[in-house]
Amino acid sequence: MASARKRTLIMLYDVVSRFYDKLYGEEQLRKFRAASRLSGLFRPGCHRPNVVLDAGCGVGLITELLCSCCGYVVGLDFSRGMIRRAVERLKRFRNVDLILGDVEALPFRPRSFDLVLSLTVLQNCLSPLRALKGLLRCLARRGVVIVSYFKRARNVSRVEKTYGGLVVRDVDPSDNLLVLAKGVSVGRERMIEVAH
User: Fold this and answer.
1) pLDDT per residue over 20-31, tens digit each?
2) pTM of the model
């Protein structure tokens, strides 16, 4: 059973889903471009992720971009309103499935995804660290997790204590960005091994 706080968030996102693109579309695209640039995953000539999870996919804005360049994409969101809008936006794609679900209780087998993307979601979690560990559990052996969260969010302090050295700050005026990888290079020179 969802907590009162989570139920309130779900209702809020159900309402906001009708005009989410107008409110946050450009901001989300900016975060995705920053994440892509930092991770190096979508550079010309680079191996593209084949199986991707967009955890907290919202109305499918980023999911749509992923469908155009990745083999198979799963979008997950806890808001029915967001999922309805994503279904409408993504109906022309055959390489996507959308799931109504919670990032804190992921319904996926371990090591299912080459790339896990979760933009501006962690601060909505009751336990952001548990949610991040769940995302890492879903990650393939040589996969990458890209997460952004609000700088002002207080409930992500345990995430920053655990992975703080890997947090990229000031990429976006409102968010911090965290790029974690398992056995692959991230960016230009770093190799990050993540234990979960």
Assistant:
1) 999 989 988 888
2) 0.82
Which has the higher per-residue pLDDT, 15 or 132? 15
CB-CB contact of 83 with 100 (8 Å): yes
The residue among 124, 5, 1, 3 whose CA lies nearest residue 55 is 124
pLDDT at 196 over 60: no
Span 172-187, average pLDDT:
51
Domain boundaries 4-191, corresponding CATH code: 3.40.50.150
Distance, in Å, from the CA atom of 127 to the CA atom of 133, rounded to the nearest integer, reads: 10
Q: Are 81 and 75 in contact (CB under 8 A)?
A: no
Angle between the N-to-C axes of helices 20-39 and 61-69, in degrees from 0 to 180, rounded to the nearest 10: 40
Nearest-CA neighbor of 39 among 116, 130, 121?
Answer: 116
Q: Distances in Å between the alpha carbon of 37 and those of 41, 146, 194?
A: 8, 11, 21
Angle of helix 4-16 versus helix 20-39 axis, rounded to 10: 100
With a CB cutoff of 8 Å and minimum separation 6, the contacts of 183 are: 141, 142, 191, 193
Residue 163 in tokens: 């992975």
Q: What angle do CA 108, 127, 60 make, to 5 degrees?
A: 50
Residue tagged 């207080």 (tokens): 154
